[in-house]
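Collaboration report, partner site 2.

Our partner group contributed sequences for two proteins of shared interest, and the home lab folded both. The records are reproduced in the order in which they were received, starting with the first partner submission.
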Amino acid sequence: MPKTILAAVDKFPASDVVLVRALEVAALHDAHLRVVHVIDLPPPCGDLGRSDALRERAEKVSRDMIEDALARLDIAAVHTEIELTTGSPALRLIDLCREAPPDLIVMRAHQRKSVSDSILGSISDRVVASNVAPVLVVKSPAAHPYAEVMLATDGTDDAAPALAFVAGLLPAAAIRLVQAVEVAPQLAEVLMHSGDGQAGVDAHREVLSRNARTHLSALAKGAPRRVRTSILYGDPAARIARAAASRRVDLLAVGPGRAGLIRRAFIGSVTRRLLRTAPCDILVCAPHDG
């Protein structure tokens, strides 16, 4: 279980919730908490002395804000380290995680603000896509500890390690495994026009449903503790988000998806869509050798 948690903070008090959730997990596991802030300064403009002075002032202001937040939130239960660095926030965070891999990254959901963000994704998108560590993306106020977790699988991903990770990370939370079943629109169109008609579509959906039941049953049987299971029908991202809202889920756990950064930026993935539309926090269980 996690020994080091990296809390990526930017603005306050917006980042208070990141510290609260990071502390929640760190306290459960007596983990070391690294609070990281990347200062995004303009490139030096010739006067290196002035640039160094500006960086030093920015670092002092940033450290003071983080220390004030830690004091305000009474975060003293775990060993906490503040780390300030400069550069492009997404790239610098990824580099830091590769240099000293954390067991979990906690960060806010970031909205796209620029043309490059629209192409490559927001800061949180890019950190998730890097697969350097599991990422907890905080989207909601931390009203209470995580109690209801939904883990979504597509039936072909490596869900067993993700289930074990979630169960160990949040030992007191209830877990529900879900799998969305959908006949791909292109396949449905082929079946409808190949003589099979709606009966062919329905038959294929039933095969997918049987496979999903078998997959979920095997996962539940091998789970470290009791979990509930459900099959959802329809567009995976839409149905998972709707189920999370209707069941009042605190945390939605998903896999990283198979698409690389550039491919995902253009055509999207279930995970990427859920980062936008899910009504709760999201844990992306990226591959990690921790």
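Second partner submission, folded after the first:
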Amino acid sequence: MVCVTILGLLTSTLVVSSSGNPLHLTGLHSWLNGRIVGGEETTIERFPFQGSFRMYGYHRCGAVIIKAHVATTAGHCVDDQDTWYLSVKAGVTEWEDEGMELKVKDYIAHEDYSIRTLESDIALLFLEGGFEFSNTIQPIYLASYGEELHPSTKAYVSGWGTMKENGSALSEKLRFAAVTIWDQEECEDAYEGINNVTSTMICAGEPQGGVDPCEGDSGGPLIVGNKLFGTVSWGLGCARPGKPSVYVKISALRKWIDSKLLAANAN
């Protein structure tokens, strides 16, 4: 049986993908999410756009601050949840630190999002009030529509996800790792017969494995320079050789993001 890890959650649920293979949803125990595989500890000052998307006050997934009152996360992290117990915390290196926590007043998942295919696995979180920007809380620039990364480009991913596949211990401190952007066709080949890698996805990892986001990192940032190029979505296990992590491709969905932000401002 082929299991694809949804990199945000932590119990076991099976959903059949478009290719007929079971997708292994490692999730729903939001209090049991952990660390980046093969990474190292860092501080929020280096990744001030990193947020913790929470359910009942416990870390569930990563989030990325893009405006004072808007963050992004993975579509599968919100998946029809009521907003009254959802929040985003920012400004913390250790996820249990006080920081600044705002309630989610509304969210919009992409209309094409599907738990079967993980197509367009993104959601915008609209927050009550707004974050006060400082050296520990800052928004990040988004990749422009159609902006591409060359294969072999070094990128960085951060979060509090597990340090090993099927891990369950929380990382007290934020971690990050350097990963390599994959050629799109090579990534498609790596997941042939497992799940479709589409034009709204971008892949990053190391051919030999050993470095990867893992359970609890979904929705977190993939950055190059000072721009957000991806958000963590799915992969086959964690840090396996020849199986990179798959991210939402921000440049492919930039028009959708802008349209939803414009509509929200109009209302």
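Feedback sent to the partner group on the second submission included the following. The first strand starts at residue 4 and ends at 6. Residues 145 and 254 are 5 Å apart (CA to CA).
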